[in-house]
Amino acid sequence: MSALTQPTPNTLPLVLIIAVVIGANSAWAVPMMNDPKGFHDIPWGTSLSSRQELETIRAGPHIIEYLRKKEPASFAETEMTSILYVSLDDQFARVMIRYQGEQVHKHVLRFLENQFGGLERIPGQMARGLNQQYTWRGSDTEITLTYQAGTERGYIFIDSRTLAPRFNDYITDSAE
């Protein structure tokens, strides 16, 4: 074997530390206070097809996406670009929120920290950068916020922890 394929005894601890840091960083989440167990007073698992305030915008055999008919898209007392409600086999499983702008991002992040728990900023953790990701994990709900500073676009996924993993069952190798 060449020196490029096998770590030397001097580099092995460094390789292990890097692997642990990368693995820990990708799975890191803040424990959630005040798990909402749904979104906007709609509990996880509720049938969305009978809700009068929602309209279907995209329907597949298992996954259906809805928008509110009349209300402006707002979250954290701020206007959002869009808020999609997603059901899986007619059970409410996910909310996808999109927003635009650095000031909106700061407001949303502050709201999420106040509502669900402060972020534990540790030395070396990137609080700013081109791509930021934060996750709050409760017993029933997981909230993931991703912000792309270059385009000032933010995305929030609010998921049922029991239903959302089932989305993977319906993703095929040919999905686009």
Strand sequence of the main sheet, in spatial order?
A: 1-10-11-12-9-8-5-4
Oligomeric assembly: single chain
Principal-axes shape call:
globular
* Order of H and E elements: HEEEEEEEEEHEEE
Distance between the termini: 40 Å
Radius of gyration equals 19 Å
Poorly predicted regions: 1-7, 11-27
- Mean of pLDDT: 83
Portion in beta strands: 35-45%
Our count of helices gives 2
CATH class: Alpha Beta
Number of domains: 1
Structural class: alpha+beta
**What composes the largest sheet?**
8 strands, mixed
What is the helical fraction, as a range of percent?
Answer: 10-25%
CATH topology: Protein Transport Mog1p, Chain A
User: What's the CATH architecture?
Assistant: 3-Layer(aba) Sandwich
What is the total tally of β strands? Answer: 12
Q: Can you describe this structure?
A:
The protein has helices at residues 12-26, 102-116, and strands at residues 30-31, 38-39, 42-43, 54-59, 63-68, 74-75, 78-79, 82-88, 91-100, 131-137, 141-148, 153-160. With 176 residues, the chain is an alpha+beta fold. It has a single domain (31-170), classed as Protein Transport Mog1p, Chain A, CATH 3.40.1000. Strands 1-10-11-12-9-8-5-4 form an 8-stranded mixed beta sheet, covered by helices on one side. The N and C termini lie far apart (40 Å).
